[in-house]
Write a structure and sequence with these properties.
7-stranded parallel β-sheet; 49% helix; alpha/beta; 7-stranded mixed β-sheet
Length: 672
């Protein structure tokens, strides 16, 4: 029976481990068998929960702790968990709601924070709404601090229900500003209970008309909510993101680097963050919002001063008022930003905040949203148990580029893809910017499969088109807030003799390899400069992936070599100018990537081009051309992506070099 219950609690945890019901480490699940409570550890996701994660605790010890005198000098929940633990303490901390789960008689217990149900739970009319929608089929418990107090409150509410009705309490418990608890003897009972409760509350919300905005803002409100944002407004919001996000990266970063700043300018955010809306100024709805998104956002109120000045002053004022940095920053009616040590943390914060916007919107249709008051939220802000939950959710150190943002052009294949993969392995968020966005997306998805959601982003870019570069940058800043490293890798080759080279091929090579490098630097330099202005202790990097052909001429490949020679000139010139803005500019000059598509493509690759152009005397096959080039290298092989990644990492970590061209040629080129 215990095995069946274990499998069933995992089944329902996975079923409801979706954003609609619980995010990140929120929510809880347990089963009881043979006098032992098996419960989810704090900070663990319901969606990924497995039986081996569950922490076993003796039910009788927990109930004795609930009904006894709490210790004076220790957290009563921690003390109860330590006393009730079965087996060796392996460091996993059980949920703070162990006493609540122990007192409920049903073997399966699921605690969720559903968006739909919280429209009732986070409502000033919760008492009458519960009676109206559920009658005697649910117990409503007023908001009580989590842990020991909540368990007592639930027990008292259940006893009051029995005294009033003469019946056993129902299996559905609604916790004000804290979600619902569904209990049952089987997984099917729990699933049916949650789904039925959700459907009833949803029907009640949908039966109410959407609220009419106040007359003073009605016209503007309708233009934002009922109609798609127009191009001019979208442009204004994009400009705000381009200005504010890099500043927030610096303002909200830590000692080791900048924050990741992600943003949302959806209809929901624009309509529900107008000044005067409760979610902008009044307070949080549930403990999870405090844990992951902060109690209240930092609001940048619209003024005539430049936006950069407004952002800086708003963050400084927030720090002075709250004693901490904000997690959420809102430009009312426009866009919301979230800060995190990495994209996963920032996205979780932003999603938690927008979940609260959804709940508030629906709560106001049912009645009026109720936020946690100052005392209630300060308990969560300072509670050690929730600080522990935050720490469990934090990403562990993974490498030398931990949480940095690296943008690589031409990253869908070849050296660019290898660089992206290598930097992701070192902890970077990598942006695969490529004209072939379909292939870039496929490769970004593979990187995310290995390193997690948010590890990679694909954007389309034509490096020779300034407008395309700017559109790509806007997409990058909307997701990550900025960048730490720009790798200008996109390049092409069109080999031919000087008398046979088509002018359009020469122009194409020059436009991509030379002009594209210039346009990329021109596009990203203002962002890197803005970040450095906020964090002058940090330097940022631009690395051009040049070539050994940028250091010596290349017979019958002059267009490529010329563009790469020019690239060295750009690198040195950019380095002299941009170091004043905290930007190092260097180049890597790899040897031939003989296994990459530039060389090995059966139709357009350099092996085939060089064979046709007669560049290798006596060569009659692609294999002959390859052997010729391998023989030129003292280390007897072509350059590999891992060699280039090592060079890029060196240049990023080297704090006293700029304007350099680092050769990675296996000894083929030895610079004086």
């Amino acid at each position: 029976m215990a095995t069946v219950l274990a499998d069933q609690i995992i089944e329902v945890a996975h079923r409801f481990g979706e954003p609609e019901y619980a995010r990140a480490g929120g929510g809880n699940a347990s089963y009881k068998a043979d006098g032992v409570l098996h419960i989810k550890p704090s900070g663990t996701s319901l969606k990924t929960l497995v039986v081996a994660d569950l922490v076993p605790l003796r039910v009788d010890v927990l109930l004795d702790a609930l009904h006894g005198e709490p210790p004076i000098d220790a957290d009563p929940v921690r003390a109860a968990a330590d006393a009730a633990r079965v087996g060796v303490d392996d460091g996993r901390r059980p949920s703070v709601e162990i006493l609540l789960h122990a007192l409920l008689p049903e073997p399966l217990v699921l605690h969720l924070h559903p968006l739909t149900a919280n429209a009732l739970a986070c409502n000033q009319r919760a008492v009458e709404l519960t009676d109206e929608i559920f009658g005697d089929d649910a117990v409503l418990v007023d908001y009580i601090d989590p842990g020991f107090p909540l368990a007592h409150g639930v027990e008292q509410a259940r006893a009051a229900y029995t005294a009033r009705t003469g019946a056993n309490p129902p299996a559905l418990t609604i916790l004000r500003n804290h979600g619902i608890v569904a209990a049952g003897n089987t997984a099917d009972e729990v699933v049916d209970l949650v789904e039925t409760a959700t459907a009833k509350i949803r029907a009640a919300i949908d039966a109410r008309p959407a609220p009419t905005p106040p007359a003073a803002i009605r016209i503007a409100d309708r233009s934002r909510v009922e109609q798609p944002v127009d191009d001019a407004e979208r442009t204004r919001i994009t400009e705000m993101i381009l200005t504010a996000a890099p500043l927030l990266r610096g303002l909200l970063g830590g000692d080791q680097g900048l924050a990741v700043i992600t943003s949302d300018s959806s209809d929901l955010v624009r309509s529900e963050t107008r000044l005067g809306k409760p979610m902008v100024s009044d307070g949080p709805l549930i403990p999870d919002q405090i844990v992951y998104a902060g109690s209240v956002p930092c609001v940048v109120e619209p003024k005539y001063a430049p936006l950069a000045d407004q952002v800086g002053k708003a963050v400084a004022s927030y720090r002075a008022a709250h004693g901490r940095d904000p997690v959420i920053v809102v430009l009312p009616g426009k866009v919301a930003f979230a800060a995190g040590r990495d994209l996963a943390e920032a996205r979780n914060a932003l999603d938690t905040f927008t979940d609260a916007l959804t709940v508030a919107r629906d709560a106001n249709r049912l009645g009026a949203v109720r936020v946690l008051d100052q005392r209630e939220r300060e308990f969560i802000e300072t509670w050690e148990a929730e600080a522990y939950r935050r720490s469990v959710a934090a990403t562990a150190y993974r490498g030398r580029m931990q949480s940095k943002v690296a943008v690589i052009t031409g990253a869908a294949q070849g050296f660019g893809l290898g660089i992206a993969q290598g930097l992701a392995a070192e902890g970077a968020h990598v942006v695969l910017a490529d004209l072939n966005v379909g292939l870039a997306r496929a490769e970004a998805a593979r990187i995310q499969e290995t390193f997690g959601p948010g590890a990679a982003l694909a954007v389309q870019v034509d490096v020779s088109d300034p407008a395309s570069q700017e559109r790509a940058l806007a997409q990058i800043l909307a997701v990550y807030g900025g960048l730490d490293l720009f790798v200008s890798n996109a390049g092409i080759a069109r080999a031919a003799s000087v008398v046979e080279q088509r002018i359009e091929d020469f122009d194409l090579v020059t436009s991509v390899n030379y002009k594209g490098y210039f346009l990329g630097v021109r596009t990203v330099a203002p962002v890197l400069t803005a970040q450095h202005q906020v964090r002058p202790d940090l330097l940022f990097d631009i690395v051009e992936i040049n070539s050994k052909s940028g250091l010596e001429g290349s017979k019958r490949n002059f267009a490529y070599a010329g563009s790469k020679f020019g690239g060295i000139g750009l690198t040195q010139s950019f380095a002299l100018e941009l170091i004043e803005s905290g930007i190092k500019v260097n180049a890597v000059c790899p040897g031939n990537f003989l296994d990459g598509p530039l060389w090995s493509d059966p139709e357009k690759g350099l092996f085939r081009q060089y064979l046709r152009a007669g560049k290798v005397p006596g060569a009659s096959s692609v294999e002959d051309v390859r052997a010729f080039y391998e023989a030129k290298v003292p280390m007897s092989r072509g350059c590999l992506p891992k060699d280039v990644v090592a060079a890029v990492l060196y240049l990023v970590e080297q704090q006293y070099e700029t304007g350099q061209a680092l050769t990675v040629t296996g000894g083929q080129i030895m610079r004086n």
